[in-house]
Write a structure and sequence with these properties.
Number of helices: 15
Helix content: 25-40%
Strand content: 15-25%
CATH class of the largest domain: Alpha Beta
Bound molecules: xanthosine-5'-monophosphate
CATH superfamily of the largest domain: Class I glutamine amidotransferase (GATase) domain
Number of domains: 3
Number of strands: 20
Distance between the termini: 37 Å
């Protein structure tokens, strides 16, 4: 999708775990920024005419046989460059300095002493005790390349930052993008605003207006369809397209029978306010009959994915002349598919409607493909979505099917739905819902003995899963207050027929996962 001429900064990715963080930090100060693989061509760089280039860190040593390398030409374009960690070491090598190979990593906090006031450290007080920064490196610069000077050091790193004498080329051994580097935001801002002369012109209001214009120009009066799940990504996608082309967008909401209690009603009621053109498809029967007798989690996922595509195609075929399929693809998925894969390459995320674009053979409209998740939430607010919907917990595409362990039946789904609704109610009533990443109930495939009144029972067990996380890649169980856990347990056992025992899951990810299946 063409974008109006925003100023752009490029991050060239050498495979660091924090490459995405660099881009997010740049965008947080309202400068548009894109990540590209380190081996992007010079022609492509020129075509983007970036205001600045940041070289990321990376797991390699500059001495590795297949160490990722960029050409000297990039430094001759006259574009300011900031090398971070590996980026700095590589720059040093390229300009004829010496990097010392190390057999151990320096990892953790360090105190940065600024030796030379310069643009990168503008406004940072010359603290005798040093500024707290975060280091994570093996190799380090031992001898500067001709033309460079040291601008900061730390106790164990004589060249913790460097600058070229005459050209706008800088290097830092520490990681300005991580939160532990207290001066990180200042250093990046100095690079962007003082060295690159960027303007802070990236914000979600301008994103909304330019995206709506782009969609209008591209779709014209042709028709677009969109699968709507009620999650933030698909809802924001639909709202943007709706704003651009109104009723030429048809949203298809498939109730697969695996949604939470009252989910379909809540989502539909919300969408109604925005006058979205929504087709509601009640496909509960279809999904549940396909899932009959199936206990294997991956098999369940496959069946649900396949059935979803069939239902969606059938519905889409009822609309004349559709040209576009809209998807809520986010920037991390885009980077994942094009970027350099270092050892830190992320674990593949789950794709709920995997295969839909291939099967539908329609042109894709992906208005969120430049955005990180936190930016999507800001767009959602900008579009008027209420806090509750913008900040709701993620919900997996296969829905409750992967939380009813073993076979999915109507009865077991309804037990889980009731228990899950109590967990969510209590989490919200205590405000804990907004502090955690995800909270839900799981129905276990075992029954245990209990006693209710004078009678022995042999009933179901529910597990409560509540986790803290930043991105779902790692997670820890939430330390909920005992009285909150106690209330949930009492209510589930008293109010949900068929449950006589409740457990709290105290496993972290890894080695456990967030979902049980
Ligand atoms: P795990 O269980 O892998 O979950 O730790 C990480 C995050 O992904 C969600 N999840 C899914 N989302 N389809 C989805 O759309 C799936 O099949 C799926 N499985 C897990 C999970 O809820 C958590 O947020």
């Amino acid at each position: 999708m063409s974008r109006s001429p925003l100023q752009n900064v490029l991050v060239l990715d050498f495979g660091s775990q924090t490459t995405q963080l660099i881009a997010r930090r740049v965008r947080e100060v309202q400068v548009y920024c894109e990540i590209h693989p380190f081996n992007i061509s010079i022609a492509d760089i020129k075509a983007m005419s970036p205001k600045g280039i940041i070289l990321s860190g990376g797991p390699a040593s500059v001495y590795d046989e297949d160490a990722p390398a960029i050409s000297r030409e990039i430094f001759e374009l006259g574009i300011p460059i900031l090398g971070i960690c590996y980026g700095m070491q590589f720059t040093t090598m390229l300009f004829g300095g010496r990097v010392e190979k190390s057999d151990h990593r320096e990892y953790g906090h360090a105190k940065l002493i600024i030796d030379d006031p310069n643009e990168l450290f503008h406004g940072l007080a010359d603290k005798a005790i040093g500024h707290q920064v975060w280091m994570s490196h093996g190799d380090r610069v031992e001898e500067l390349a001709p033309g460079f000077r040291v601008i900061a050091h730390s106790a164990s790193c004589p060249v913790a930052a460097m600058a070229h004498e005459t050209r706008p080329i800088y290097g830092v051994q520490f990681h300005p993008e991580v939160a532990h580097t207290e001066i990180g935001r200042d250093v990046l801002s100095n690079f962007l605003f003082r060295v690159c002369s960027c303007k802070p012109d990236w914000n979600m209001r301008s994103f909304v207006s330019s995206t709506v214009e782009d969609i209008r120009a591209r779709a014209g009066d042709r028709k677009v369809i969109c699968a709507l799940s009620g999650g933030v990504d698909s809802t924001v996608t639909a709202l943007l397209i709706n704003r651009a082309i109104g009723s030429n967008l048809t949203c298809i909401f498939v109730n697969n029978g695996l949604l939470r209690k009252n989910e379909a009603q809540v989502v539909l009621a919300f969408l109604k306010q925005f006058q979205l053109n929504v087709r509601y498809v009640d496909a509960e029967e279809r999904f549940l009959s396909k899932l009959k007798g199936v206990a294997d989690p991956e098999e369940k996922r496959k069946i649900i994915g396949r059935e979803f595509i069939k239902v969606f195609e059938e519905e889409a075929s009822k609309i004349d002349q559709v040209d576009f399929l809209a998807q809520g693809t986010l920037y991390p998925d885009v980077i994942e598919s094009v970027s350099f894969k270092g050892p830190s390459a992320t674990i593949k995320s789950h794709h709920n409607v995997g295969g839909l674009p291939e099967v539908m053979k329609l042109e894709l409209i992906e208005p969120l493909r430049e955005l990180f998740k936190d930016e999507v939430r800001k767009v959602a607010e900008e579009l008027g979505m209420p806090y509750e919907l913008v900040n709701r917990h993620p919900f997996p595409g296969p829905g409750l099917a992967i939380r009813v362990l073993g076979e999915v039946t109507r009865l077991r789904l309804s037990i889980l739905r009731e228990a899950d609704a109590i967990v969510l109610e209590e989490m919200k009533a205590s405000d804990w819902y907004w502090k955690v990443w995800q909270a839900f109930a799981v129905l276990l495939p075992v029954r245990t003995v209990g006693v209710m009144g004078d009678e022995r029972t042999y009933d179901h067990v529910v597990a409560i899963r509540v986790v803290d996380s930043l991105d779902a890649m790692t997670a820890d169980w939430s330390k909920l207050p005992y009285d909150l856990l106690g209330r949930m347990s009492n209510r589930i056992i008293n109010e949900v027929k068929g449950v006589n025992r409740v457990c709290y899951d105290i496993s972290s990810k890894p080695p456990a996962t967030i979902e049980w299946e």
